Amino acid sequence: MSINTKMGEVSPALQSMKNLKKIPPEVAALIPCSQLQVTKMYYKSFKEPIGRLEIALRLCPKIGATDGAKEHPAIFHYFYGGTDIYICEYDGEDLLFGYTILNGDLHNAEWGLHLSEITRLPQFNIDYHFAMQTIEAALYKASAIIHSSLLIFINLPR
Questions:
Q1: 123: Cβ–Cβ under 8 A, 6 or more apart, which residues?
Q2: Three-state DSSP state, 110
Q3: pTM above 0.85, yes or no
């Protein structure tokens, strides 16, 4: 589902974003606790990102749907400091399948987790501006950023 249309046209997805009056419970469940409090306080400012999350939720594959796939869609992105979590499957309740990179450590990154593990921690945020891509593409970008940061650090004058 795309929210882009020809000039002057309003897509049904974009129209549903404009009609949002509150955060749908299934979307609120995805948002970490402290971020959800701020989002509720300033709801008008977050209407569009909430609408995008609602669309992404509808597009998110169910658990097991991407088994054996060469690439996995990164539907949601959570972050805190150097930690990134890319979600590609969700059961609609608490079970997520995604890739977790703790503190930029790509070598020890792992698959799988529970939504409640993320949303109960006040430090985490769901990326309201994340552009859906594959997890593999996101890892490639993360790897390039980490490697370029290391090169800068290594070349610092002593």
A1: 34, 80, 81
A2: strand
A3: no
